[in-house]
Design goal:
With 98 residues, this protein is mostly helical. The chain has two domains: 56 residues, Arc Repressor Mutant, subunit A; 34 residues. The chain has four helices and no strands. Helix 1 crosses helix 3. The radius of gyration is 21 Å and the shape is elongated. Pfam families: HTH_Tnp_1.
Length: 98
């Protein structure tokens, strides 16, 4: 069974940073536990928020800045899958051809 990482959308990240700011009485670990994210993950989101002049500009997996980047990523995945399938077929032909 594969170990799947949780993926959070941009709105959740914005809300998480706001939650931490709205609850200064809670320590960082408590905020992270209440939100169901890791300490380092929440700290990274907060650091990105502060480094971007208090604007949320999170880019995570699946969060492309433009439709062109999204299409490029899809085409790269498709190309890799096609190349993998071609390699498998080449190996099968060499095995069966002997």
């Amino acid at each position: 069974m594969a170990n799947k990482q949780k993926q959070f959308d941009i709105q959740f990240k914005k809300d998480a940073v706001k939650f931490c700011e709205d609850h200064p009485d809670m320590i960082h670990a408590e905020c992270a536990a209440k939100l169901g994210v890791g300490n380092s993950t929440l700290a990274r989101w907060k650091r990105k928020y502060k480094n971007n002049n208090n604007e949320v500009q999170f880019r995570g997996s699946g969060n492309f800045s433009s439709d062109l980047e999204k299409e490029n990523a899809r085409l790269r995945r498709e190309l890799k899958n096609t190349q993998d399938a071609l390699e498998i077929l080449k190996k099968a032909i060499s095995i069966l051809g002997d």
